[in-house]
Design brief:
By secondary structure, the protein is mainly beta. Helix content is 13%, strand content 45%. The chain contains one helix and five strands. A five-stranded antiparallel sheet has the order 4-3-2-1-5. It is globular, with a radius of gyration of 11 Å.
């Protein structure tokens, strides 16, 4: 996985901590989401998106930055 914020994404998955992602969406717009990473695969980063309240897949090559957030329980 060649991605900005790789360390933060790995910690998010391992420690069940939310991470804030800044990324380019499919239309080229910059967006920010707070997510809980559930899996990292060849297809992308699987995560629960707190804004959309459902699972999403994020392409590693479109992630511009990642930062860990304070711990909070995963609520759906």
């Amino acid at each position: 996985m060649a991605v900005q914020g790789r360390k933060e994404i790995e910690i998010s998955q391992r420690e069940h901590r939310p991470v804030s992602l800044i990324y380019l969406d499919s239309k080229g717009a910059i967006s920010q989401r707070v997510v809980q990473v559930t899996d990292v695969t060849d297809e992308g980063i699987q995560a629960y998106c707190f804004l959309r309240k459902k699972p999403r897949t994020f392409r590693p090559d479109q992630i511009l930055a990642a930062s860990l957030q304070a711990r909070r329980p995963l609520t759906r």
